[in-house]
Amino acid sequence: MSLRIALLGLLRASGPSSGYDLAKSFESTLNYVWQAGHSQIYPELVKMAADGLVTVEAEGARGRKVYAITQEGSAQLRGWLLEQTPSLTVRSESALQAFLLPVLDPADAVAALERLRERYVEKVAMLETLCDQHGSKAFGRYALDHGLRHARTTIEWVDDTIATISRDIGHGGSCDENVAD
Amino acid sequence: MSLRIALLGLLRASGPSSGYDLAKSFESTLNYVWQAGHSQIYPELVKMAADGLVTVEAEGARGRKVYAITQEGSAQLRGWLLEQTPSLTVRSESALQAFLLPVLDPADAVAALERLRERYVEKVAMLETLCDQHGSKAFGRYALDHGLRHARTTIEWVDDTIATISRDIGHGGSCDENVAD
DNA sequence: GCGTGACATGTAAGAATTTACATGTCAAAA
DNA sequence: TTTTGACATGTAAATTCTTACATGTCACGC
After folding, report:
1. Which tens digit of pLDDT belongs to each residue from A53-67?
2. Class (C level, CATH) for A2-83
3. Shortest Cα distance from B171 to chain A (angstroms)?
4. Extents of the domains making up chain B
5. What pLDDT, on a 0 to 100 scale, did the predictor assign at position A80?
6. Is any Cβ of chain B less than 8 angstroms from the Cβ of A90?
């Protein structure tokens, strides 16, 4: 369902677009909260057209098909946004890794957290650049802002976690606990 | 791979546990960053045992099987944590919804954001309670802390986004733009 | 004219995830 | 004593997601 809603939202926000355009939009604006490749997007658009949520508005060069959202699609998007109660959970591989780091020796954990920190610093810089380019105009602004705030929050968390773990260094690590065989 | 690593991490942090225990741990500590149900966990543990990463250390009442991480499992966990560069992307249904809200009339969008805000306020309260219970002891503390910070950041984002959208009310909404048919 | 890279769409296979089905045990309260 | 709820493990089916394969067009520079 999320993919469908995301595509309807992009069509609504950006106007008629091809699957290729939508894949790019996913990459550049929705990437901070949802991901989908073209191999997922193309078949989904076909199904959505069959369900009357979008129509092929025009066909252009290189087989390009321009989809537009229909009134039915627009109604479904609005209904979902107003009525659905989305799950508040998040899926983040990097956060998962960060949480498991404390099972390492404290020194290793700190080193790994510092590498993670650097990557988030880069991410923040990248997002800030994008933010400046966008100005305060585009639809994607909210997404960008969200991504930026969360990346900064992660850096703060990493810093505090490093500090906490560092205090434990010398007080005995978790190195060989809980291992069988 | 993430599921495997998460299970190894939990076994390492909590000591020998059954699939049932691990499912509970997932729910209570890792839930903020990764989700897995028992129907995913049980078969994965069987595969991991076949690969020598865990062993069935004991069998108890009600068919309970207690798994323990092996040295090989421990080595693989450590290797992954130190060497892997996880993707920094996140998948969040609620954030996706939040991003698409601006395609609604500003008034609808603000109403929906306010409902979202309430849910996050509840979440923060819940996490704060859990935090107090845990004290500063447990492994899951980092996860909890992370979840709490991100939930608070989301609330701030919602507030600022509401403010931004509210300023636009009366300046013309996005109500019937970009709809075909 | 030829190559390269962005444009553009698709399918296939496999992995991961979710939801539902299915079964059985144990402890404690009513 | 019976029933309820937590404990405990699985499988099946459907969906979603990722990775790889496969194909062809157009514009631009060399």
Report:
1. 999 999 999 999 999
2. mainly alpha
3. 14
4. 2-83, 93-168
5. 94
6. yes
